[in-house]
Amino acid sequence: MRLACGELPGWDVCTVDNIAAARKVLEQQHYAVGLLLDRKGNLESEDIERFLQHHHQIRWIGVFNGDLLHRPQLREAIATHLSDFHTLPVDTVRLYHSLGHAHGMAMLAKSAPPHKRQSGSRHIDGKSATICRLRAHIDKIATVDAPVLISGESGSGKELAAQEIHAQSPRASGPFIAINCAAIPPSLIHSELFGYERGAFTGAAKEKQGLIEAASGGSIFLDEIGDLPLDLQASLLRFLQERTIYRVGGTRMVSVDARVITATHVDLPKAVAAGRFREDLYYRLSVFPIRVPPLRERKEDLPLLTEIIFNKFADEKSPQLKGISKQALRAMTQHDWPGNIRELINRMRRAMVLAENRLIMPEDLELAPQEDAIILRDGLDNSRGSAERAAIWNSLARCGNNISQAARDLGVSRMTLYRLMAKHSIAP
Ligand SMILES: Nc1ncnc2c1ncn2[C@@H]1O[C@H](COP(=O)(O)OP(=O)(O)OP(=O)(O)O)[C@@H](O)[C@H]1O
């Protein structure tokens, strides 16, 4: 592939000889339009297709040897990846016209280059006032070495907020250890958190450091803290007060220097009132309480988050897919996002693989808001089917594809859920 740059006055042109060099250049610099001079019809090769798919934001124009255009694979690759093509010998007037058109379209589609996370920049993306406030709050509390209690709905970004607090804190070079208290069986949680001494129980052939100890010098993030059994709440309280722990089966005090960040999606004051959570521990943990807002309270972030997700998973998308339609964005704004950003990521990833048009449509996201229209168009039987399918899909998205949780959520057995998923061709 080669482009004669001297022949394009008025353009800022970078010329490369091969795909590897093009990859390097595009890592550093954004170009709106790309010109491929491909005499041998290499476009149909997998490597070049992968390259074009990865750099789908660029408007590509190809120049080929006309004798090769009968090849079906080449024709398909041109139709999928290129905005326009020319045959040799090139008609320069037409080529200028075509480049100008591609450039104009690129400018219309995007006034700024694709969002790229700069190193050292925020984990928590969003421009809404609530997210800006959250980030400002995090900046302040990150520097203070006191416990933080993060509340927020499932999938809203509590762990991300915890990572951000750690990353902005003086402990950033130390470990960040995250544990989901609800995911560890009660019989194991004590030894997981606090470690054990040799011989503490059958099978404890060697002493083992617990996760709290492993977080020394850094931060420990205890997710779903409301699920911590009461006896462990007492041990955690002791650690917060004295900065020391006892391993299971041990009599030796071990000093640990770890900042404790906790998160909950349940109302902890209510759990305190119900006697399920120690009041003294609650006050110790919530020196700095912060709340991560649910996605429905910051819908103005949807276009930015969608763009970030689109770019992040661009390698998985169907080749002809170029972006997201206005209708899909509108449907997203009408949706309540009970599964928050995790649901948004799941819906987008799925749509990016399955979409058949150039733009993602509401139905690719399984977000068709016009339920009345479905009934009129499809009749009652099909409408029931659509509603069933939507309920399953919503529940799976909400539960992060956890089948047992989704089955509970829908009030059916796991087997029934599997059967319904097969009926509606929903992949587990
Ligand atoms: N503001 C954001 N910008 C970009 N990605 C985000 C944002 N918030 C959350 N995410 C992404 O959404 C997903 C869910 O976030 P996270 O695990 O932090 O949520 P959570 O509230 O801790 O969920 P759970 O309560 O289920 O543990 C992750 O993949 C995370 O990277």
Q: How are the strands ordered across the major sheet?
A: 5-6-9-4-10
Mean pLDDT: 84
Q: Which CATH C-level class of the largest domain is it?
A: Alpha Beta
Strand-and-helix sequence, N→C? HEHEHEHHEHEHHEHEEEHHEHEHHEHHH
- Structural class, from helix and strand content? alpha/beta
Q: Any idea how many domains?
A: 4
Question: What characteristic shape results from the CA principal axes?
Answer: elongated
Which bin fits the share of residues in helices? 40-55%
Low-confidence region ranges: 1-6, 112-122, 370-377
Could you describe the largest sheet, including whether it forms a barrel?
5 strands, parallel
CATH superfamily of the largest domain: P-loop containing nucleotide triphosphate hydrolases
Quaternary status: single chain
Percent of residues in β-strands: 5-15%
GO molecular function, one term: sequence-specific DNA binding
Pfam families: AAA_lid_14, HTH_8, Sigma54_activat, VpsR
Protein name: DNA-binding transcriptional response regulator, NtrC family, contains REC, AAA-type ATPase, and a Fis-type DNA-binding domains
Organism: Massilia yuzhufengensis
Write the layout of secondary structure elements.
Layout: H1 19-28, E1 33-38, H2 46-54, E2 59-64, H3 72-81, E3 84-87, H4 92-109, H5 129-142, E4 148-151, H6 158-168, E5 176-180, H7 186-194, H8 211-214, E6 219-223, H9 230-242, E7 244-246, E8 253-255, E9 259-264, H10 268-273, H11 279-285, E10 288-291, H12 302-312, E11 323-324, H13 326-334, H14 340-354, E12 359-360, H15 371-398, H16 403-410, H17 414-423
Parallel strand pairs: 1-2, 2-3, 4-9, 4-10, 5-6, 6-9, 11-12
Antiparallel strand pairs: 7-8
Helix pairs in contact: 5-6, 9-11, 15-16, 16-17
Bound molecules: adenosine-5'-triphosphate.
